[in-house]
Amino acid sequence: MIMVMAIDIKKTLISFTFVVLLTLLFFVNVVTNRQGNETVGAEEPDLGASMDDGSWITVSRFDGYQTKADANKVTDGANPQGQNTIINDGDRITIRNFGYEIFGTATTTASPIKSLHTFRKRSGENIMIRTYDTNIEYFEEDNDTWEVVSSTYTSGKSFGFADFNINTDAISYTYFGNGFDNFSRWTGAHTITNGAVALNDSEIVVDDTTDGFSSSGILVVCGTELAYGSKTASQFNLSASSTVACADDKGVTQAITSFPTYPKGNTYLVANNRLFVSGVSSTPQAVFFSKYGDADVWLTTLVADGTADAAGVFNLTEGGGPVRAMVQDEGSIYFFKRSMVYKATLTDALYTLLPLKPFDAKSQTTGAMIQGSTFTGGNGVYFITPDRQIMNLTRVEDVDYPQIVAISDIVKPTVNEGVFDEASGIFWQGRAYISFKSNDKATFNNTVFAHNFRRSVETGRSTWESPIVGWNASTWTIYDDGTSEELYYGSSVDANIFKVTDETVDNELGITANWRSKQFDFGLPHSLKEIDNVYVEGFISPNTTLSIKLFLDENGFTQTYSTDFVGTETTYLFDAEPENVFGFHPFGFQRFGSSDQPEKDKFRIYLNKDFRRIPFYTAQIEFASDDIGQDWEITTFGFHVAPDSQPERRSLYREFN
Predict the structure, then answer these.
(1) In the predicted model, is pLDDT for residue 504 greater than 60?
(2) Which one, 7, 45, 102, 231, has least CB within 10 Å?
């Protein structure tokens, strides 16, 4: 009997010792397995949870969207799942704080936007141009209407545009082409009618004829071309009676001029006081360039040391296939083919042309797919390779020449699912936006990736926001309407143009947003744990309902907890008017432009009421919302966690002999 008791006591001591060692191991792992997160669990104060052997593990720095690593191996502040959320400067998770609204009058025309360009005239005026179907139109600010410039181009083709304002006549020009129709040029001269135009009228009265209109020429009035022989400051005198009736306040513009002998390309670039054109169907491997300082002089002569300021051609046969894109960055011109990149300089005295990386007839990862997804910004050139890598051509530390860096590796599975044959990109306010098709079932661009350039530079690690869902963007532009520059995009499903706004509303529709954390195993993937409290801190607006979920094990296999927190639940809000006893300027008592402004209140929540403690292996938290005008931010979340008294799930035991 005594011997049996001794054996039982010995077993008890061994079991007790094992639990103590497991607890110590848990705390050691909490401290040493934070994967770079700035908040370490062991340094956090006990916030009043019930488990005496527990520890608070908090996260307050965020690393963006990561899908390459397993969901429990991404960094602590990353999210392997999510949409329509951003991490700002890594200090908070928010529903994306930008949406879109229709620009101009909405249209039901089903033809997608193929090209979008901002013509920047030498006067500083911006003119937005869109193309779709057979049409080229410009936005007339004086009547807030899209007006026709031409409706006779080949249907459904994408155009290249380039503004070239270096000429002797002091007129601004934008040059463009689609690879099928004649090389074209437009002055951007425009006005509106001052009174209706009737059939057979011999003159057209307008607001002003002095802004770039030639002394005689051809007008486009309500989509119809009319020749004029002379003009006054407010009237065009027609060469023949008007063949169109046109209402008051309708657009009048100078007609497009075409040049059938110039290269018919669809990719245009202005660099080094020359106009470059590629995408010519008869010679797709060639890049044509104009005379130095004169976009109206073209030759078919190959470039040579004696070219100097003359026109000529780069014949880029190495690597095979056509030239896909052209950009200028850091004083050099880059010509992209599918399998290689050329770097060129061309002044009025000399030229250089060499492959940026040698072509080995095997590699397919150093070229670009199309012009639309090749663009500059953030001290580099973004482009997408045929094997679906998003690259950045930039300088890296300690290397004195441009390097091609793959920036999409951290989201490789997501990018591999995408289709980039019609992708388009732009750099705007610290982010590179790339629109693409989410998978091979999509027939139009339906997703946008946003590369957080500032955060990438700060951390030295490529950082992506959660995908933007709900934006069908075929092409982008930045346009100044006279008040401020803003970002715009063309629709990939119809002929509408949208302006990106700073509101969490997508054209009067709500935004469905979520951010789901990594699967936390708290450094002990092999051991069961328990949570008895969850802490969440952030900001919320009164009209917002924030859904919070906790998933124990894969997608809540073991248990899912949920609650909906409404921004009017004052119990959890910390809201007080800023004290201003001495009459400070607002700079002196509040943070201008920050999130802690009157429209959002600070909140703190402990999720522990009626909370059943269930043993688990991994835990994952999610924040989500789905309505119009939702506005929320998460600055910190945390778990009060401890090892379970039973470290292993016995149902998982298996014979091993």
Answers:
(1) yes
(2) 45
pLDDT at 490: 98
Exposure string of 27-61, with b = 16+ CB inside 10 Å and e = fewer, is bebbeebbeebebebeebeeeebebeebbbbbbbb
Q: How many helices (H) and strands (E) does the chain have?
A: 3, 48
Report the residue count for the chain.
Answer: 657
For β-strands 78-79 and 64-65, DSSP reports them as: parallel
Amino acid sitting at position 199: L
Burial of 623 per CB tally in 10 Å (0-12, 13-18, 19+)? buried
Residue 375 tokens read as: 């663009």
User: Which of 101, 130, 141 minimizes the C-alpha distance to 480?
Assistant: 141
In terms of Cα–Cα distance, which of 327, 281, 252, 290 is closest to 157? 281
Mind listing the pLDDT tens digit for each residue in 326-355?
A: 999 988 899 999 988 999 988 888 888 888
With bands split at pLDDT 50, 70 and 90, how would you rate the model's confidence at 587? low
In angstroms, the Cα distances linking 628 to 184, 315, 418, 511, 623 are: 44, 54, 28, 6, 16
Report pLDDT digits (tens) over 396-427. Answer: 544 456 788 899 999 999 999 999 999 999 99
| Burial grade of 288 (CB within 10 A; 0-12, 13-18, 19 or more) | buried
Give the C-alpha distances (Å, rounded to integers) separating 452 from 186, 410, 504.
Answer: 36, 13, 19
Architecture label for domain 267-370: Beta Barrel (2.40)
Domain with CATH 2.40.128 in the chain: 267-370
